Amino acid sequence: MKLPDIKDFIESFYYCRYRQFFTVFLKVIELVKQDPYLKLHSRYFIRETRVVIYSQFLESYKTVRLESMAN
Q: What is the mean pLDDT of residues 9-19?
């Protein structure tokens, strides 16, 4: 199985390019669902990938305080 978008998938995750990540993620999901071995675990892969990427995205908002937003 060839994964032509895997480089973009990994780089967009690493460099926090979320728009690009989710665009490529849709392509990766289709590839995973087509693979006979990975198909059984596709729901787990999708769910866990989303958890990781959303956690990374929201991490930067932990330091935002109401006082700094008011300023």
A: 92
